[in-house]
Design goal:
2 domains; 5-stranded parallel beta sheet; Rossmann fold; alpha/beta; 10 strands; 334 residues
């Protein structure tokens, strides 16, 4: 077994081909250094994210150390290989016995020239037939080639909003089932039940809704398959708060909280459900009259418009809503 090995790349993104090479390389040396190459290319994924991926991937591999080297190039074609080699040798600080690389460099003599005192070990890239370039072009086509730690980065987030009893919960569950992915149910109903009904909810209950909903969304994102569906959002909680506490000393502070949370959510698609299905009382609902539903619908749209949030309106019966939503999501995942 060799003492010191090196395997480098830009891992943009990290994929299962890299994972296989890292596992095999770490099994062949006493100490493996993973070198993350970072350039000024604006199309590269933030190097801190890529570094985190590598650290998380290898956290149970005690003989693996992740290091970064930086260069001033803006594209792979202008990379200064000699300077990169010098930076790697300096960073590792000890002789490199073996250099690992893909067999796409076989017969180029590049690594033999750069590391004349090291053994060069080539991995057959066809064993895991994928490349970072292909993933960047078609991430959802090659989603299964991404490690679990990388998948959330590419996962699209779709939020479904609307006034009460407009079919949000049903649509979110059906979409999650159809796309075989995780979804986030609204937490407001549970907190409303705990409070003893909507008329008994205190301002702090609405704060709890925002906090708990965000945590549930973060946890679900780690399990999602290409797309995550979210029932309701912080601005919708603001809408319900406004209906109950429009003229209170807490309104301004809560409005800041809700809008700040909304600014950080970064949803890829907003689906707005029109209140044109039958209103159903589930024990927590209050605003069932047609004129009240329409008034509240306009209020909610105004809140979203004031925040300059683009949304797609969907109406019709439950089947029509499902089909219209699918069209939007399939387009998003192309």
């Amino acid at each position: 077994m060799k003492k010191v090995g090196m395997y480098g790349g830009n891992f943009n993104p990290l994929h299962l081909g890299h994972v296989e090479a890292i596992i095999r390389a770490s099994s062949l040396v006493e100490k493996l250094y993973l070198i993350l190459s970072v350039s000024n290319d604006p199309n590269e994924i933030d190097h801190r994210i890529r570094f985190m991926w590598l650290k998380q991937l290898t956290k149970e591999m005690p003989n693996v150390t992740v290091l970064e080297i930086f260069d001033s190039s803006t594209s792979k074609g202008t990379y200064d290989w000699e300077k990169g080699r010098d930076d790697i040798i300096k960073k590792i600080g000890k002789p490199i016995d073996i250099v690992f690389c893909g067999n796409d460099y076989l017969n180029t003599n590049r690594f033999e020239t750069l590391y004349p005192n090291s053994e060069i070990h080539y991995f057959d890239r066809s064993e895991v037939p994928i490349s970072s370039t292909e993933i960047r072009k078609h991430p959802y086509q090659y989603f299964d080639f991404l490690p679990a730690i990388v998948k959330p980065y590419y996962t699209k987030k779709v939020v479904v909003v609307g006034t009460e009893s407009c079919g949000k919960s049903t649509l979110v569950r059906n979409l999650g089932t159809y796309y075989q992915t995780a979804y986030v149910e609204e937490v407001g109903r549970d907190i409303c039940d705990f409070a003893g009904g909507i008329d008994n909810m205190l301002p702090e209950h609405y704060e709890e809704i925002i906090y708990r909903h965000k945590v549930k969304e973060f946890d679900a994102l780690q399990k999602a398959n290409k797309v995550l569906f979210v029932d309701t959002e912080a601005l919708i909680t603001l809408y319900y708060y406004t209906l109950q506490y429009d003229e209170t000393e807490y309104k301004e502070a809560f409005e800041r909280l809700a809008k700040a949370t909304a600014d950080l959510n970064h949803y890829d698609l907003w689906l707005f459900l029109e209140p044109d299905v039958a209103w159903v009382q589930d024990g927590t609902r209050t605003y069932g009259e047609d004129d009240v539903r329409e008034k509240n619908n306009r209020l909610l749209k105004q809140i979203l418009d004031d925040q300059h949030i683009p949304y797609i309106c969907i109406g019709g019966n439950y089947e029509e809503r499902f089909l219209k939503a699918r069209q939007q999501i399939d387009q998003l995942l192309k």
